[in-house]
Amino acid sequence: VPLAVVLSKIDKIWSMFDEQAPTRLPSAHAGHYAEYDGLDVHEEVRAWLDRWYGPELVHGIAADFPVHRYFGLSALGAGACPAGHRVTDPMLWLLVRFGAIRTWRGRR
């Protein structure tokens, strides 16, 4: 069972993220799911959760759900987040996992 772990309201902690952080960059999902973009955001959000909650949280998730991905998003949209809201990222990732849409592994 794939698990999408979502850090919501990311606009409230926007200042904690570097300007070039993956969560602050525009989503690269255009007609497909960009795997590299999703992995970049996954690693960034995982690192923040590890820092805030300790390794037990991320290790527990990985142990119970080998297929998982972390996401950061804001439901407020582009006005709150310069890169946009990334609200579709978890759903796109799940659609790829279930074979419903294409994925692209390359870089921009």
Task: Specify the overall morphology.
Answer: globular
Please outline the major beta sheet.
2 strands, parallel
What share of the residues does DSSP label as strand, in percent? 5-15%
Mean pLDDT: 86
- H and E order: EEHHEHE
Number of strands: 4
Q: Uncertain spans, ≥5 residues at pLDDT below 50?
A: none
Helix fraction by DSSP (H/I, runs of at least 4): 25-40%
Provide the spatial order of strands within the biggest beta sheet: 1-3
Q: Main attributes?
A:
13% strand, two-stranded parallel ribbon, globular, 108 residues, alpha/beta, two-stranded parallel sheet
What would you say this structure looks like, in words?
The structure is a single chain. The protein has helices at residues 35-53, 55-64, 89-97; strands spanning 3-7, 33-34, 68-72, 103-104. Helix content is 35%, strand content 13%. The protein is built from 3 helices and 4 strands. The chain is α/β, with parallel strands linked by helices and 108 residues long. The strands form 2 sheets. The chain has a two-stranded parallel ribbon. Strands 2-4 form a two-stranded parallel ribbon. The model has no long low-confidence stretch (mean pLDDT 86).
Describe the structure in brief.
The protein is α/β, with parallel strands linked by helices. The protein has 3 helices and 4 strands, in the order ββααβαβ.
Secondary structure blueprint with pairings:
Layout: E1 3-7, E2 33-34, H1 35-53, H2 55-64, E3 68-72, H3 89-97, E4 103-104
Parallel strand pairs: 1-3, 2-4
Helix pairs in contact: 1-2
